[in-house]
Amino acid sequence: xxxxxxxxxxxxxxxxxxxxxxxxxxxxxxxxxxxxxxxxxxxxxxxxxxxxxxxxxxxxxxxxxxxxxxxxxxxxxxxxxxxxxxxxxxxxxxxxxxxxxxxxxxxxxxxxxxxxxxxxxxxxxxxxxxxxxxxxxxxxxxxxxxxxxxxxxxxxxxxxxxxxxxxxxxxxxxxxxxxxxxxxxxxxxxxxxxxxxxxxxxxxxxxxxxxxxxxxxxxxxxxxxxxxxxxxxxxxxxxxxxxxxxxxxxxxxxxxxxxxxxxxxxxxxxxxxxxxxxxxxxxxxxxxxxxxxxxxxxxxxxxxxxxxxxx
Amino acid sequence: xxxxxxxxxxxxxxxxxxxxxxxxxxxxxxxxxxxxxxxxxxxxxxxxxxxxxxxxxxxxxxxxxxxxxxxxxxxxxxxxxxxxxxxxxxxxxxxxxxxxxxxxxxxxxxxxxxxxxxxxxxxxxxxxxxxxxxxxxxxxxxxxxxxxxxxxxxxxxxxxxxxxxxxxxxxxxxxxxxxxxxxxxxxxxxxxxxxxxxxxxxxxxxxxxxxxxxxxxxxxxxxxxxxxxxxxxxxxxxxxxxxxxxxxxxxxxxxxxxxxxxxxxxxxxxxxxxxxxxxxxxxxxxxxxxxxxxxxxxxxxxxxxxxxxxxxxxxxxxxxxxxxxxxxxxxxxxxxxxxxxxxxxxxxxxxxxxxxxxxxxxxxxxxxxxxxxxxxxxxxxxxxxxxxxxxxxxxxxxxxxxxxxxxxxxxx
Amino acid sequence: xxxxxxxxxxxxxxxxxxxxxxxxxxxxxxxxxxxxxxxxxxxxxxxxxxxxxxxxxxxxxxxxxxxxxxxxxxxxxxxxxxxxxxxxxxxxxxxxxxxxxxxxxxxxxxxxxxxxxxxxxxxxxxxxxxxxxxxxxxxxxxxxxxxxxxxxxxxxxxxxxxxxxxxxxxxxxxxxxxxxxxxxxxxxxxxxxxxxxxxxxxxxxxxxxxxxxxxxxxxxxxxxxxxxxxxxxxxxxxxxxxxxxxxxxxxxxxxxxxxxxxxxxxxxxxxxxxxxxxxxxxxxxxxxxxxxxx
Lengths: 311, 412, 294
Prior knowledge:
The complex is a heterotrimer of chains A (311), B (412) and C (294).
Chain A: H1 2-22, H2 26-52, H3 59-76, H4 81-103, H5 108-128, E1 138-139, H6 146-170, H7 172-182, H8 184-189, H9 194-220, E2 222-223, H10 225-229, H11 232-244, H12 250-269, H13 274-291, H14 301-310
Chain B: H1 2-15, E1 27-34, H2 41-60, E2 64-66, E3 69-79, H3 84-96, E4 102-104, H4 109-122, E5 126-128, H5 134-138, E6 144-146, H6 151-163, E7 171-177, H7 180-195, E8 199-206, H8 213-222, E9 226-230, H9 233-245, E10 252-254, H10 262-268, E11 276-279, H11 296-307, H12 313-332, H13 340-352, E12 354-357, E13 360-363, E14 380-385, E15 388-393
Helix pairs in contact in B: 2-12, 3-4, 6-7, 9-10, 12-13
Chain C: H1 4-32, H2 39-57, H3 61-76, H4 80-87, H5 94-117, E1 132-137, E2 140-145, H6 146-168, H7 170-180, H8 182-187, H9 192-217, H10 225-239, H11 247-264, H12 270-284
């Protein structure tokens, strides 16, 4: 059963590898690149929210740290993109390691607000620094090759997805996390170390997010505190995860694809009704929470059985 | 589920198939990338009014005249959602999918900087009718132009006007919000004040959108002659209310863009009076336009009729961006669709444009820190008098004498 | 030194605004255990409600506050069952579901406001907006704005009324029972649903009135919501979530910190300091300054 699912994932991934071969329209390729990016951000968000039960409202901080470290290394130190983005991911991971220890002791709403406060503090700090360009942001050298960025983004997100799949669905790590989510004291009684597990999950969520941030910076060529460190990344990732189905790997992917497609179609082809989009999106989110508590994934019949298989 | 993914991929492949023939058309397709939603939607919609007004006026005359034939123009909007990456995507969509001939650009500097590399890549010229940050022009983008001079060019003029008043102001407190435009404004004020021999008692960059009343209390104790602030619409309104609430009236209160926005006077009523601002155009300016509108008042009247909102310089600058394209297109006799070679020629021609419009002289710099920004204009110092925007400096342009020092709040 | 009294006064006046932003928000968390992401949007909608009511009637906006309260309480009342449905049942993580639901609401409200009210910033004129009182004693002087003083009085009145309601009425007893133990309160005969609905209605009404006051003191626009949501979060966490008695102290503290930063230190770092402080306090004392949050 599970191996069939893996082959399914691999098939979809292979199909996605072929996209640049059939899609020659650079705008569509850009849209696909961004869709893949949001899949990555939703999946990384879900490691903590879904598997561990901790709502990280500061997810944008990892993204922003990755973007800024990459930009600073490339622009100010003349590094190549790949090592710069890798270091961006490492910096995000290090941030998670340092912040995780004290922050993950908090629970529920307190954790959500603490991570949010930390992300806002980082944004304010970046606004006041010289090396980041402050409010002016940073401009990166423009490499305008849509195919390159599609493959880089897909590579980063694909590796992340399969690494997660292995760790969370095949290795005991995923079960341990779920044990911590359901009952922290109980997990401890079983000989698990919840603090260590939670920090591992936090770092696991942070590193790919940081790298994605780095790819984003090079791809878009311009970053500023509002677009990389604002609430957009955290809010949207959360919505995608909840809409698709939390605590699974496929749920966030479906949520990301559906929400991003809706946003993009509305934006590209119905831009006269631009403001309506906020109203509809808001309505869809609120309604999905009321009517689809397990997300879209919960209403797909063969999937529901799958979810029960896991439990 | 898997089948659905496959179907979706096939659908995409069909939709995206590149075999769309090069179209033939007898009108110009013009892309507009601007902020129609999000935090900067106020300004984005001002630029939209400017662009719309130009397109409407051109089409009313029959279109752009190329070799005896007139070609209508049609605007294609794409919303940047006040987000630089969305702006870049918007430009790419307009260029690759709509195949626009050229682009009218965003309201904000951040979005402009993210859009510029995209238009550079596809060799599609863009003129922004708004973005004012000096940073854009330092990048020296070949395909990007702007009709509004950067704020470091305009901000200094207002300080010079203030210095000429009597009794001459000797001290100032200067601060700006921590966003790219406002910070540049505050820095321009600061540089000009120091140059003019005014003592700057306090210079601060403050987080955007905050209640600054306590800061104004500190300013009140310093009792400067000038309070100068770089900020956006809502911040300016809050600041005037703060000064009023702590009852401190400096001799002169100076801001920049936003004072000329109708919302400023609407919200503050008589408290808006006597505020100074910087501008490059006002509705009463005696300009001599050769194209579409003969002077500023004619333009302002058309604008008022169309939108029922007074026109400010951003709106005028946006309409002027259209005129600049129009002039250059007629000169090089480009017919739609404009080919890549013709677009390169268009850029060369834009660099040569030197034309008097209702908005004033449009002439883009071709070198230096203001590269491709419009340096044909004289920066104006304006003041709100009886709820209206009037020009009070420099002397050659002044319509009225500056009201100075400010009437204390309590006597209004 | 000569600025010290003014710095305190400015901080207290700012704090008064934070009290009214946060107090009803805290009540709702205490009773319903929902973090309402839409709090700032209720404030925004209330501000526009007050603005248009004033344009229409030309009555002093302060006198319009009760009308705004009634209208918005009536809007809030029927929403509670929906929120209840989101929070209960077999859904895994009620806190998160509540957050996402109200986040959806907030997007909707902001979109609606941009559609109907446009993008411009406005201000609600009041005859109290203009005056100020000036006190001087030797080298020390203080200016107190009358409209901000009105805000302070309003904040204290609202706090007083809520306090009275909770401590001295049957309704309040029900609310407190509900906040402490939902099941036990039900067994004791407290009508869980109706009490929650009243609490939510009161919260929406108070937030809307707060919006009108903010429109008088500062300004209003369709995009103002998220800023005030930020401050509501801040104060409520500092006070201890759901611990009403902590709200005034936390609000004044926040106001005074901002005021001192703006006056004595580098204003650019004000928000940085605020967020770092919030984070630190959460780490050191997760249940707020008084350790009494739920």
